[in-house]
Specification:
Elements: E1 5-7, E2 13-15, H1 18-46, E3 50-55, H2 57-66, E4 78-80, H3 87-99, E5 103-109, H4 110-115, H5 117-122, E6 129-133, H6 146-154
Parallel strand pairs: 3-4, 3-5, 5-6
Antiparallel strand pairs: 1-2
Length: about 160
C-alpha cells in the first residue's frame, strides 16, 4: 500500500491509512521513551473524535463496515440493540458515550432514542452531538426527533 498523509490544522503531517498510523505510533513509542508516550497521546488527539452508535444490528453493522468501530479491552463505541436488550443497558451506553472525551457524535436509531427520550430531553451538551437516524425496519418521524423539535421551537413553530 502507498503511504498517504495529510496536513492537520496544526500543520502536522498525519498518516491517513491505518497501517501508516500504526507504524508511526509504534516508532514514536519505541524510539522516544516517555517523550514518545506524550507524542502518541498528541497523535491520538490529532486523529479527532470518534462516532459512537446505538442501534439495531443492521445499522450498527453498516457503520462498522464503514470504519467507525473502535474497541478496546475496556469499552467500544457501539451498542447493538436487540429486542431483548434491557433499557438499563441502553441507558448505560448512552451515559458512557456522552461522558467520553473521545466521542464527538452519537448516532442513535430513532426507535432506540424513543426508549431513551427521558435522557435525551435533559441532554444539553453540544459535543458529543446526538443525532437520531432512521433504521431499516422503523420509519423516521421528524416530529419525534428532539433536534428537529428544538429547531422548530427556535424558528417559531409549535413544539
Amino acid at each position: 500500500p502507498t503511504s498517504t498523509t495529510r496536513t492537520s490544522s496544526r500543520g502536522v503531517s498525519v498518516a491517513t491509512s491505518k497501517e501508516d498510523r500504526r507504524s508511526s505510533l509504534t516508532s514514536l513509542h519505541s524510539t522516544a521513551g516517555s517523550e514518545g508516550c506524550a507524542s502518541v497521546a498528541a497523535a491520538m488527539e490529532e486523529q479527532g473524535k470518534l462516532i459512537a452508535i446505538i442501534g439495531d444490528e443492521d445499522t450498527v453493522t453498516g457503520f462498522l463496515l464503514a470504519g467507525i468501530g473502535h474497541r478496546t479491552a475496556e469499552s467500544s463505541n457501539f451498542l447493538v440493540v436487540k429486542p431483548d436488550t434491557a433499557l438499563p443497558v441502553m441507558e448505560a451506553a448512552f451515559r458512557e458515550y456522552t461522558n467520553r472525551e473521545d466521542v464527538g457524535i452519537i448516532l442513535i436509531n430513532q426507535h432506540c432514542a424513543n426508549l431513551l427520550r427521558h435522557l435525551l430531553k435533559d441532554y444539553d451538551k453540544t459535543i458529543p452531538t446526538v443525532l437520531e437516524i432512521p433504521s431499516k425496519n422503523e420509519p423516521y418521524d421528524a416530529e419525534q426527533d428532539y433536534i428537529m423539535q428544538r429547531v422548530n421551537m427556535i424558528m417559531g413553530g409549535s413544539g
